[in-house]
Amino acid sequence: MSDLRTDRTRSDAYWRANLRIIYICLAIWALVSFGFGILFRPLLSGIPVGGTDLGFWFAQQGSILVFIALIAWYAITMNRLDREHGVEE
What we know:
Blueprint lengths: L1 H38 L1 H4 L3 E2 L2 E2 H32 L4
Antiparallel strand pairs: 1-2
């Protein structure tokens, strides 16, 4: 019975850490795509980047690049978390 509780505790810790990573990714993604591309665009319009303003750049290219970086960070972080909790493939 104690092994079952120990396994359950480890599983719960793993999923709490996993959800924390997902929430961080979602918050960054929302800030960059919705925040910088739409909400804060007027504030970023005075900053030139590549012939356009920073708000437009985030809406068109920056959010995609940040999304790709988030995917890479998530994969690296999850691999490390899997090793820490002994559930790697």
